[in-house]
Amino acid sequence: MRALQLTDDRKIEVREVDGPDAPAPGEVTLRIQAVALNHIDVWGWRGMAFAKRKLPLTVGAEASGVVEAIGPGVSNVLPGQLVSIYGARVCGHCKACREGRDNLCEHVSGVHGFHLDGFAQDRINIPARQLVVAPPGVDAIGAALAPVTFGTVEHMLFDNAKLQPGETILVHAGGSGIGSAAIQLAKKMGCMVITTVGSDEKMEKARALGADHVINYREDRFEGRVRKITKKKGVDVVFEHVGAETWAGSMLSMKRGGRLVTCGSTSGVSTNVNLMMLFQQQLKFFGSFGCRMENMADAMQKMAQGIVHPVIDTIVDFDGIDTALSRMETRQVFGKILLKVDPDL
Ligand SMILES: [Zn+2]
Fold first, then answer.
1. If you placed Cys at 140, which of 3, 33, 88, 310 could pair as Cys (CB 3.0 to 4.6 Å)?
2. What is this structure's pTM?
């Protein structure tokens, strides 16, 4: 079978590998349907030094699959079902896992596609516990976007920032995968949404997703515009994932007692923090990584009800991976790039 493997920094190739054995107890064999690309794939491709990994590494951290066979003792999924796959290999036994807070697992062995082999391959064996069944009305693309794109955002907005209806939120990079999900989720619950984009062309698309105010950050200082829009009050919540480039401006955009939730830090991981502003303004910061499996289920329910929808930039085959990652690196996308794994998709 085929696997899309990273063999060196910035070198990904399609390789023939052995298919999985029959599923072991508690495991399932999946036929992978679609893989969604994320910034973590760009990091892996660039060869980020902090990742402990062995090459070649099969890429792909976010995906959907169809259950082909189940191992002994599996009861949560059935053959033929479409499932969304949790992206980290968690223990399933620690207190956090037992309480459904898998992204705080004490014995996590890594993130698929980054530390461990990922999902860009025809078939894979995976613990059944890492699977969430897609409800009717959610297709293979939607299920592929539940773990990171929508699940991460559900966790950031609702579990961490505790966003409330009627609040004002600044969503950075509204054209990114998680930005486009955050605009929809916040707007649909009745928030006022301000977002930033990097081109005039993306402004219209962000408005179409429900953003009330769209700022081209290449032309305007976003923090100045945010203060103007909010009549100098600032926003209740900032949805950060850009990091170094936007951090200071994000702090200036927050109202007293405001909350900032961050993941990703795609422009750089280190920044300065004005501690006087932090305590005098009583700002609250939340670091967020991954999601709970319940966030994936919630996200797919909202897709099934038409509350949110996947925003797709392009769908490519395995041979389109280099172009896709380059476009992500240079921020030339609006929404998600997906890899088609099942040829019948
Ligand atoms: Zn655990």
1. 33
2. 0.94
Going from the C-alpha of 235 to that of each of 172, 222, 231, 242, 254, the distances in angstroms are 13, 12, 10, 17, 5
3-state secondary structure of 173: coil
Give me ligand 1 centre to Cα 218, in Å.
42
For 2-133+311-340, CATH gives 3.90.180.10
Q: What is the pLDDT of residues 192-247, one digit of tens each?
A: 999 999 999 999 999 999 999 999 999 999 999 999 999 999 999 999 999 999 99
Q: Tell me the one-letter amino acid at 219.
A: E
**Which residue in this structure is represented by tokens 């969304």?**
84
Amino acid 58 reads T
Question: How remote is the CA of residue 101 from the centroid of ligand 1, in Å?
Answer: 8
Return the amino acid letter for 335. Answer: G
* Residues facing 70 on adjacent strands: 28
Can you say how many angstroms the Cα of residue 251 is from the centroid of all Cα atoms in its chain?
23
CA of 290 to the centre of ligand 1 (A): 14
Ligand 1 center–CA 91 separation, angstroms: 4
Please give the distance, rounded to the nearest whole angstrom, from the Cα atom of residue 107 to the centre of ligand 1: 5
CA of 132 from ligand 1 middle (Å) equals 17
Q: Do domains 2-133+311-340 and 152-287 have the same CATH topology?
A: yes
* Rounded alpha-carbon distances, angstroms, from residue 296 to 64, 218, 224, 228: 12, 33, 35, 36
Fold of 152-287: Quinone Oxidoreductase; Chain A, domain 1 (3.90.180)
* DSSP state for residue 112 in the 8-state scheme: B
Map out the domains of the chain as residue ranges: 2-133+311-340, 152-287
